[in-house]
């Protein structure tokens, strides 16, 4: 039985779920493209991460539309959106919230922070201190906030879209490894093509296209799509393929830090979402290969040899993918 037919036994319901995912994703993508032009692959990764219940790190130089893309994603989904501008003097309580004592009532009242939203836009996250960055660790991994001995759950969907400038720019702090590992994927927006930049002059010169962007879906529908993505089939051979790929980062001589078991889970979840966006109810090697760099590269630390050869983490992951045998049909 081939990879393309092995899951047909689950019936038409699964195929219907995938069709629903594709329909809503096309609406969201179309809405965002009225604001961000010429970046289809970046938008695909953003939608993949959202449907896989992950978090997205957008890294690039200033002025290329990182924050604009994150805001457009928030506008396209009718849900609660909060933005946090990370600065060196930002405190952890500015993110998670704080309990305030009311003397007249003789009681404390919790004032929730901006993290209590469906989509949290963390602008220039690496300009805050490591202590403040770490305030997001529990939120991103466990979907909850612990303040003053009390744990409060966060609503689904919950997604952190953080932007950051390259670490060698002035006034930035490198993200700790534990923080980077909690982001499902990292993307770079990059400079627009000359034609896209010309179109941008017309569309952005008089007023921001964000003002005209209307929601095309809502939080309840996104929750439903996330649940449907969970039904996308990952065959045993594909699971082994993912594990072998992640393990290869731990033994590669070019790397001094490989990917974690969390990376394995993130890659499988992202592959399910990617397959659904492609209109399939099963994962194939192409899904894993398309996501290997954005899901794995930001978690890795190149070793001295790779640094001497000026090999980036992205190039090393691409080499590992090329070396790894692809599972055949069964």
TrEMBL record:
Keywords tagged on the record: Hydrolase
EC number, as in UniProt: 3.6.3.-
Endpoints of the signal sequence: none
Coiled coil: none
Gene3D superfamilies: Magnesium chelatase subunit I, C-Terminal domain, P-loop containing nucleotide triphosphate hydrolases
ChlI/MoxR AAA lid domain residues: 248-319
Cell cycle found in the keyword field: no
Keyword Hydrolase in annotation: yes
SUPFAM superfamilies reported for this sequence: P-loop containing nucleoside triphosphate hydrolases
GO MF annotation list: ATP binding; ATP hydrolysis activity
InterPro entries attached to this UniProt entry: ATPase_AAA-3, CbbQ/NirQ/NorQ/GpvN, ChlI/MoxR_AAA_lid, P-loop_NTPase
First-level EC class: hydrolase
UniProt domain ATPase AAA-3: residue ranges: 55-184
Protein name, UniProt field: MoxR-like ATPase
Organism per entry: Nocardiopsis metallicus
């Amino acid at each position: 039985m081939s990879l393309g037919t092995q899951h047909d036994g689950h019936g038409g319901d699964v195929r219907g779920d995938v069709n629903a995912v594709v329909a809503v994703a096309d609406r969201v993508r179309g809405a965002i493209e009225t604001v961000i032009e010429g970046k289809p692959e970046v938008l695909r990764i953003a939608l993949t991460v959202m449907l896989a219940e992950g978090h997205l790190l957008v890294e690039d130089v200033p002025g290329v539309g990182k924050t604009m893309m994150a805001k457009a994603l928030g506008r396209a989904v009718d849900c609660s959106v909060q933005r946090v501008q990370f600065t060196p003097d930002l405190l952890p309580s500015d993110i998670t919230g704080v309990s305030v004592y009311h003397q007249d009532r003789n009681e404390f009242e919790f004032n929730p922070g901006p993290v209590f939203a469906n989509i949290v836009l963390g602008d220039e996250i690496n300009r805050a201190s490591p202590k403040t960055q770490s305030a997001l660790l529990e939120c991103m991994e466990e979907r909850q906030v612990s303040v003053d001995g009390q744990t409060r759950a966060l609503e689904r969907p919950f997604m952190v879209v953080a932007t950051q400038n390259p670490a060698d720019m002035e006034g930035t702090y490198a993200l700790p490894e534990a923080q980077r590992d909690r982001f499902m994927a990292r993307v770079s927006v990059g400079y627009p093509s000359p034609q896209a930049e010309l179109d941008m002059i017309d569309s952005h010169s008089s007023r921001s296209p964000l003002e005209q962007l209307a929601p095309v879906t809502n939080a309840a529908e996104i929750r439903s799509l996330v649940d449907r993505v969970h039904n996308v089939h990952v065959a045993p051979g594909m699971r082994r393929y993912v594990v072998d790929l992640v393990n290869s980062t731990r033994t590669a001589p070019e790397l001094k830090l490989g990917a974690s078991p969390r990376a394995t889970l993130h890659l499988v979840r992202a592959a399910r979402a990617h397959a659904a966006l492609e209109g399939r109810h099963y994962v194939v090697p192409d899904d894993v290969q398309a996501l290997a760099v954005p899901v794995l590269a930001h978690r890795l630390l190149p070793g001295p040899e790779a640094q001497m050869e000026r090999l980036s983490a992205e190039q090393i992951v691409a080499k590992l993918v090329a070396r790894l045998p692809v599972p055949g049909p069964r």
